[in-house]
């Protein structure tokens, strides 16, 4: 879209809109078709991320019970599992669906109440609008 963008995290409606957190438009009858498409694509991307974490936890089940290692070791352990997982995925190492039996999809912690509007960043709306335009220019999918 002619403007360089930095990376963003995907959030849901409870997070404040920031230039580094993308969240969907508030669902109501006034949403335009392109805003609905943006929300749809954001939800699809979020589900891809959830599936990736589910596969990571299923393949490396030590991540489900890291309570027996020191806090100093934990970041290294998680990083090692992520690297090994990506190597396995990149080389089409078979994924055993039975591994999923021990891993329940868990809700990640998030705010209970929507963030107040005062926490929202006005520049963030420009980022969301650019993403909305980009999704519209990509067509359906």
Topology:
Elements: E1 9-10, E2 21-22, H1 33-59, H2 74-90, H3 122-138
Parallel strand pairs: 1-2
Main traits of this protein?
mainly alpha, 141 residues, two-stranded parallel ribbon, 2 strands, single chain, globular, 3 helices
Write up what this structure looks like.
This protein is mainly α and about 140 residues long. It has a domain at about 30-105. About 45% of the residues lie in helices and about 5% in strands. The chain contains three helices and two strands, in the order E-E-H-H-H. The protein has helices at about 35-60, 75-90, 120-140; strands spanning about 10, 20. Helix 1 (about 35-60) packs across helix 3 (about 120-140). The longest helix is centred in the N-terminal third of the chain and has 27 residues, at about 35-60. The mean pLDDT is about 85. GO terms for molecular function: hydrolase activity; metal ion binding; nuclease activity. One of its GO terms (cellular component) is nucleus. InterPro entries: HARBI1-like (IPR045249), HARBI1_dom (IPR027806). It comes from Rhipidura dahli. Keywords: Hydrolase, Metal-binding, Nuclease, Nucleus.
């Amino acid at each position: 879209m002619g403007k360089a963008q930095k990376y963003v995290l995907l959030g849901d409606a409870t997070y404040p809109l920031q230039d580094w957190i993308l969240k969907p438009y508030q669902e109501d009858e006034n949403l335009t078709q392109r805003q609905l498409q943006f929300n749809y694509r954001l939800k699809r991307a979020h589900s891809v991320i959830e599936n990736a974490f589910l596969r990571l936890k299923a393949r490396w089940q030590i991540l489900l019970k890291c309570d027996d290692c020191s806090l100093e070791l934990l970041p290294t352990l998680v990083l090692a599992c992520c690297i090994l997982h990506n190597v396995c995925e990149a080389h089409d190492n078979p994924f055993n669906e039975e591994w999923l039996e021990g891993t329940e999809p868990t809700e990640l912690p998030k705010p209970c109440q929507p963030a107040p509007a005062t926490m929202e960043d006005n520049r963030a709306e420009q980022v969301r609008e650019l993403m909305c335009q980009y999704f519209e220019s990509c067509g359906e999918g």
